[in-house]
Amino acid sequence: MEEISLASGKAIPAEAQVEAQVEAQPESLRDRVTKLLQKGPLAISEISKQLGQKQISGQLKKILRELIEEEVLSFTLPNSG
After folding, report:
1. What pLDDT digit, counting tens, does each position of 36-48 carry?
2. What is the pTM of this model?
């Protein structure tokens, strides 16, 4: 199973950080996903679980797809060992 991680050497775009700081609403799903992945790679199912979802939501899939397209995230293979 593939895992997703922050793309090596990539930082969260400044615009995204500023938007997150400006918003007075609770932390966005996008921000929660990137925070989880700053700790290390996770399978999509584990991301969903840690977000408190019973199953992988369409919104989570959409956000992951956007972050991969923006090259903020990348797919990785889990360590075999």
Report:
1. 999 889 999 999 9
2. 0.66
Q: What is the pLDDT of residue 45?
A: 94
pLDDT < 70: residue spans in the chain = 1-26, 78-81
Q: Are 75 and 3 in contact (CB under 8 A)?
A: yes
DSSP summary character for residue 81: -
4 three-state secondary structure: strand
Residue 73 CB: number of other CB atoms within 10 A? Answer: 22
Q: Give the Cα separation of 32 and 36 in Å (integer).
A: 6
Q: Report which residue type is found at 34.
A: T
In order, the DSSP letters of 10-77 are: ----HHHHHHHHH--SSPPHHHHHHHHHHS--EEHHHHHHHTT-SS--HHHHHHHHHHHHTTSEEEEP
